[in-house]
């Protein structure tokens, strides 16, 4: 923790993925004083955070995870879905699965086209390289997986470390081979924003130490923590933002905090940067009086800005999980149910980070709209969307339709997950319950993640108390197109299973979770309803868009109707992107830091240090 200073130029609410990135970049300038306030603890040296293979040990535990549960989802047979959220320095980057993918060009060009100048693929490209250093795959990985498309010159120069495993095995290899056989061979490095087919993404794992590389290990190193202009409070909750309303437009001038000992006080800052994540930044705005007037008045919260877009437009990646029993001898993470195996692997890991506990071995594939017959023709895609035209009327949904009608836009990302999944559970106490190997057989799981959902959910407070989690309603499949697209891709999974060599690793007539097969469109819809959950990518709840189109922040991330207040985290995405989203959270934060520095220069030139 740096030394305490009296005045902070910037107060960052939330020491998570985006918050720590911005804090590091701003305090590179010794003249800028920053305070970060994080509700969770500093657990950076905790073995569960550091060891990639022990991630399940954190879910549901209050010292790591906020542990959200959804409202019952009518589009999912009324199941209640679990949603972990990181509660510690590093936020969700400290509890995530470390898959690090780069978004396709179309996803980011859509951001620009929604009215956000300076936020298209080309403008963001420098930041896609700035946050990360990608280490080349080991030769063994290149050979096992046939990574001919991998471009070793794409490295980057940022503090988040990305590496490839030494432990990819038969399932990964046959995954790649089978997609190629089905006409989906990756031909370009997908990190260039293009590419369809199966591929191997890197993991946010330091290749030297084999430990998790996350926002805290990258942006809050001992050297950064010792900067005199950076102060970090942990175990301190921000209860609300404080405004000066005496000068016309409300100016954010500070935050009301509750410290570890329960005492409360207001701290003043030149600018407040909200970085509490897509489920909790909207909570703090609403607690502070920014949101829908009717909601705020019902809770006796004085209205600062009436904006009913706050907490709406929430988007996520729904993911359908199907586990299939493997033949004897096929590698499966389910063997970790045996304490002797786990202990042996722990010892191996302690000996220089060796073995699977230091690796992330999930493989993926980007696939455009497909069903059991394979990839749809352009005409077939257009016909499907035409028959659902009434559900594609808003500007952002038209944008998604346009994207999905392109020949090279992946409508799903498939994952090959190395063990069993029980996402059929009705209301699990935590995410760990989805993934603990409670069935006696050994499995691999194929996951079907919808890249561009048409459904929109919400996150809203139901109390004026910061300790009461807001109500999360993702509204999965409320737009019927989402169910239709997911179900067709589930039909494609049956084709994968019938195709050699992937199909050969599974036991003929072996066990399945869920038991229903995606062998007809109606059965595939039922697979989705029984086993779809969140892929933990909530975003867009405080979208960067023109206010009349549903926006909460402008293209400099300033909250409409206020001064001195920005949001920098996954909430500001204008539209969900294809692929896992941590890359874009870091990228948005890197770009935000530059914007904030630029705006500071302008203010300084005007001779003003404040708003
Ligand atoms: C289980 C899981 C697996 C995932 N796997 C992957 C993956 O493999 N690849 C990938 O790309 N993405 C993955 N993600 C998604 C990715 O990690 C997140 O989208 C990203 O980290 C979110 O960053 P953020 O800055 O928006 O929020 P966060 O990183 O969650 O930061 C928000 C911070 O704000 C703090 N906070 C909240 N309220 C308050 C308050 N009132 N006062 C003070 N502090 C507060 C929180 O404690 C937290 O530290 C995963 C996420 C989860 C949860």
Spatial shape: globular
What is the CA–CA distance across the termini?
Answer: 28 Å
Strand pairing plus helix content: what structural class?
A: alpha/beta
Question: Remind me, CATH topology of the largest domain?
Answer: Glucose Oxidase, domain 3
Which small-molecule species are bound to the chains here? flavin-adenine dinucleotide
Describe the sheet with the most strands.
Answer: 7 strands, mixed
Number of domains: 2
Mean pLDDT: 96
CATH architecture of the largest domain: 2-Layer Sandwich
**Beta strand %:** 15-25%
Q: State the CATH superfamily name of the largest domain.
A: Glucose Oxidase, domain 3
> In angstroms, what is the radius of gyration?
23 Å
Textual characterization of the structure:
- There is one protein chain.
- This protein is α/β, with parallel strands linked by helices and 611 residues long.
- It folds into 2 domains: 8-44 and 216-314 and 540-605, FAD/NAD(P)-binding domain; 47-81 and 170-200 and 315-461 and 470-534, Glucose Oxidase, domain 3, CATH 3.30.560.10.
- It is built from 17 helices and 26 strands.
- Strands 1, 2, 10, 11, 12, 13 and 26 form a 7-stranded mixed beta sheet that branches.
- Strand 11 (237-244) and strand 12 form a beta hairpin.
- Helix 1 packs parallel to helix 17 (582-605) and helix 4 crosses helix 17.
- The longest helix has 24 residues, at 582-605.
- Bound molecules: flavin-adenine dinucleotide.
- Residues 13-19, 37-40, 84-87, 91-93, 95-99, 237-238, 275-278, 280, 284, 431, 466, 536-537, 569-570, 580-583, 585 line the site of flavin-adenine dinucleotide.
